[in-house]
Amino acid sequence: MTHIPISVTVDGTVYDVEVEPRRLLVHFLREDIGRVGTVVGCDTSNCGACTVLLDGKSVKSCSVLAVQADGHAVLTVQGLAEGEHKWHPVQEAFKECHGLQCGYCTPGMVMAAVDLLQENPNPSEEEIREGLEGNLCRCTGYHNIVKSVEYAAELMGGKS
Amino acid sequence: MIPIAFDYVRPGTVDEAISALAAAGEDGKVISGGQSLMPVLRLRMAAPTTLVDIGSIAEMKGITDGGDHLVVGANATHYEVMNDALVKQHAPLLAQAAGTVADPAIRHRGTFGGSLAHADPAGDLPTVALALDATMVAKGPNGTREIAAKDFFVDYFTSALEPEEILVAVKVPKLGDGWSTHYEKFNRTAQAWATVGVAAAVKRQNGTITEARVALTNMGPSPVRASSVEAALAGAAATTDAIAAAAANAADGTRPTSDLHASAEFREHLAKVLTKRAVAQAAGV
Amino acid sequence: MTETLTDANANPVGRPLRRKEDARLLHGQTNWTDNIQLPGTLHMAILRSPMAHARITNLDVTPALKRPHVVAAFTAKDLGDLNGSVPCVWPVTDDIQMPGFPALAVDKVRHVGDCVAVVLATDKYAAADALDAIEVDYEPLPAVIDMEAAIKQGSTAVHDAADGSHGTNVCYEFPLKPQGDGAFDAAVKAAGDDVVVVKRRFINQRVIAGYMEPRAVVASPMGMSNEMTIWSATQIPHVLRVLLALVTGLPENSLRVIAPDVGGGFGGKLQLYREEILAVQIARHLGRPVKWTETRSEDMVASHHGRDQIQDIEIASTKDGQIIGLKVDLIANMGAYLQIITPGIPLLGMFMYPAIYKMPAYEFNCVGVFTNTTPTDAIRGAGRPEATYAIERIMDELAAELDMDPMQLREKNWITHEEFPYTTVAGLTYDTGNYEAATAKAMDLFGYDALRAEQEQRRASGDPVQLGIGISTFTEMCGLAPSRTLGALKYVAGGWEHCTIRALPTGKIELITGTSPHGQGHETAWSQIAASILGVPVDDIEVVHSDTGRAPYGMDTYGSRSLAVGGQAIKKAAERLVEKAKVIAAHQLECSVDDLEFIQGAFRVKGDPAKSQPLAAVAFEAFTAHNLPDGVEPTLQAEATVDPDDFSYPHGTHLCAIEVDTETGKSKIRSYVAVDDVGIQVNPLIVEGQVHGGLACGIGQALYEGVEYDSDGNLLTASFADYLIPSAADLPSFTTDRTVTPSSTNPLGTKGVGEAGAIASPPAIINAIVDALRPMGVTDVKMPATPENVWRAIQAGQGGAQ
Ligand SMILES: Cc1cc2nc3c(=O)[nH]c(=O)nc-3n(C[C@H](O)[C@H](O)[C@H](O)COP(=O)(O)OP(=O)(O)OC[C@H]3O[C@@H](n4cnc5c(N)ncnc54)[C@H](O)[C@@H]3O)c2cc1C
Ligand code: FES
Ligand code: FES
Prior knowledge:
The structure holds three protein chains of three kinds. By secondary structure, chain B is an alpha+beta fold. Helix content of chain B is 34%, strand content 26%. Chain B has three domains: 7-53, 2-Layer Sandwich (Uridine Diphospho-n-acetylenolpyruvylglucosamine Reductase, domain 2), CATH 3.30.43; 58-173, 2-Layer Sandwich (Uridine Diphospho-n-acetylenolpyruvylglucosamine Reductase, domain 3), CATH 3.30.465.10; 179-283, 2-Layer Sandwich (Enolase-like, domain 1). The radius of gyration of chain B is 19 Å and the shape is globular. Chain C is of the alpha+beta class. A seven-stranded mixed β-sheet of chain C has the order 3-5-1-12-9-10-11, sandwiched between helices. In chain C, strands 7-15-14-13-8 form a five-stranded mixed β-sheet. In chain C, α11 (384-402) packs parallel to α20, α16 packs parallel to α17 and α19 (684-704) crosses α20. At the A-C interface, α1, α2, α3, α4 and α5 of A face α1 and α19 of C. Residues 29-37, 39, 54, 74, 101-102, 106, 110-111, 113-115, 117-118, 120, 123-125, 161, 166-167, 193 of chain B line the site of flavin-adenine dinucleotide.
């Protein structure tokens, strides 16, 4: 099974590498290029811990092959805030509203929330809950995650 | 978590894909969105030797107006389908049901064609295709053929596609004036597949239902039309009682299984309740 | 809205400070065990049994060795003495049956997921591939799955008896009869005609912990010495170190265990797992780092499960609702083997069945049973959710039998706030509590009367959607634990906690704790406690934890103990540090110690505020040691190891309103009010988060979750696709509040909050569903209350009513 050359942009940096066709995008991120901020929580595409943006839209990076990302741009939680020490409003809101505990679901949850807010800058509680249905969290009971997304919407100017 | 090794090709056209599939032999497999295939590969429940990635074939993308029907490219994602203006206007049932599939991230990648080809008995979109009398456009080494939805879903995870055939597009008839629709999905948690689902399309004239189509998800190896409900509804008054009476036949001719999420008996019960609700909702009662 | 961390004027204890942990967690700058990539690492993959019970008739790993990148492969036989046995540290009775639990199965497999062989490869993908090459044959044996069948005479035995003869599946039997055997029946008899007895069987189903980070371990040996560093996604690095030393024979002083960032535990990572033993032993044997990260599918079969009890419970009261006795008979599933504290879990609940109620007679008995299933052990609440479920459910059933309002029945029987400290019928002394206050607040927030009115109206109109109200007035026992008590219960460890605080020369503070957080925010909360005593900004304190190299003493984090026990150690260490600093400061300021007061981080001469010395200056003096008073040692640090005097008993009143669709059986939580009393709150934001998370776990158990096996012992709920953990869309927002009754068993007045929500909520949910359906003849609904279980209960109820 020959390796295939791919060129993937991750958090603004272009990576030209050769991968086995079966390499999962999430393993490429974590193990080949050291972007370990994105994590794995399951093997059935249910948990969403691995969520990243692919060409600006949320995907589960365990359910995409690295070769399928060839020629595309991936944004992970590590590249979300621009520049050093900066905070994306969603990150800021999660901190402010205590929207994380152990933080394991957080990279995926944050990216799913970013996607949700770009689709719908002013979501209702129900829309937030449904929009995050693909991301499991065992720590928070989601209460403060919902609050975080509401607050992020406010910070981003969506909520009046 | 780790798939068994395979080779990978990414053809640019349907014809190239068909040749690639033929070249790969029996253990070749198509991947489009990968949202059903990837979990299967990671759990090592399938071991194709070659994956033919049809995801970037331009001619399989997009949704166009074909006159009395829409042509939905097999590669149209659930996300595209649920948000498409043409689909919302002419096949709102499809737009609504696509919005209930899985979660936003999966909808960004999973495709309409993949859903139909996968033929999962719990899949929502096969049921909708059946309810709307869609036609599948398949292409293989012997050329293009059209397959009616009622002939397409053959058995558990089995469609009428030949191994070397690719589903290229789906023709979805436009619903004319007077029709309204609803998809009623019942699941145990929001991200779970349908325990039972009901797709209903109802044509109303004044206070009467003149025609109805009802199809059921997860009530057997493939989606089924609830024909006795449809018959009972044709000409019935658009009232709660009449709809409930017709819906009582919803389990006729179904062959649901018993599994972790529900017994066959409970599924039969749910089919009746959900059919009543789906039809009532569609009929605006 | 933001509370800054550095506002020096306010006491940081009690304030909802935003967490220090969050910056790195939110930016993906984390250090999960699976992130660790050491040069030369071998990836371990494990061949697991697909059978619940079988004899291994053929096992050959040599074909796997021929696969690319494979370096080694082992069976139990290959490992020989290195194949350690997983220990159990809680032999609850003298005659308990404690079979061995080899890391790799020897001759027989005893549950689906049992480890059969391992492969080590330089590449993780290659290791997974090589498993397919191992040749293995099994001769199936009958699977023991049903607990009641398992304890019948003649059942297949999961383990042979110690002498090799046919064994029994009874692991142990543990009675607790504080008022003597037969006390319950005697109480009933004594009551004559004035008695109502209600008896029920409840099934507390098996659940998983469901932490989002899968387990992982990296074991890295250091050359020719015995030294070994072990990173593990564990809740218990300190306990792990002791146990690994005991199991492997490696000297404890050469083992360093680090729990880096850990993505949740909920009891599931309170364990010494066989995979950890294998990684350490093989790393030692091969002299190379060994890494293993489980897949979620492996987690489902191999990480311990929890609960799984059949509860026969009987309650008796007078006709006006005064409880006169309670009798509990448990059958508790151990699974196939005993893990670290498997047998003790049901006994952690043993004392809690009488809950907040006064009664003269209590009898308890528990039979622990082996089956061919994944071992059970602690999961969030560990024994107490089971107890709380049974008592709070049967209180509702008793109320129905008496035709009494369920809240009135509770009020009539609970310990009133003037009665604390109160020694219960089970023999525990509850420190403090105020059930009246918590209930009053909860009732207020809930709108009890309006909901009852709506319920009436829905009943009258025959609405297909019925409304039910569920109550859970719970208490729990936390702060594990007084070491003597643990000793009396035959637990082979203590329950103390340690803290060292160092004032560094630059004025920064290093707080070294023996607790091991994995989401609980100790870095923030512990800083708050220390800052309140040391008067330094919260941000100047660095909390060091979860690394036996840097934080050598500790008993780790579980059982809502960290604050209740660890908090005391922080307080004491901080106070000792101030004491020492004061002596130095007095010397520097040329006054007597008694003339000094310590305010906002500085020693001031009373009546002469101009003369003062900040703690940082004292720390620098202690460092240079140029001018220390006679007899004072250089460096400014202090430590404390605290053994708690007693447990503490948080409590609360949870009220839940549920809409039940009687046609589909689907339940929807309309509102959930939780008023908890966890004593003094160090950080109310964190407290609230813990309550939310606990509620989600408990609601998960009540409505969605349950491990299912078929009769052959195949795990049906083998992934998150089938084991349904609720998502945001399946849960409501919660209304939470607190009453504050300080604990009297520790000087901070704190209790524990980590498990409260998980303990309280299942009965609140099920009571609400049953309440909604009672007019339809429903008196119980099985957990999880799936639509089908609810529908079946309605069918049965209506059948019964005809
Ligand atoms: C967690 C989760 C939840 C889900 N929930 C739901 C749900 O509630 N309802 C629902 O309907 N679906 C659900 N899905 C499935 C999802 O809808 C998939 O997107 C869909 O079933 C498959 O589409 P795909 O494009 O991803 O196909 P792939 O995964 O790429 O392929 C699926 C199968 O179809 C074949 N195939 C794909 N495209 C073609 C083609 N054009 N021609 C011929 N063969 C083809 C492939 O060879 C493969 O066998 C869920 C999936 C996940 C992971
Ligand atoms: S790892 Fe669970 S969805 Fe990707
Ligand atoms: S914060 Fe721990 S899983 Fe979400």
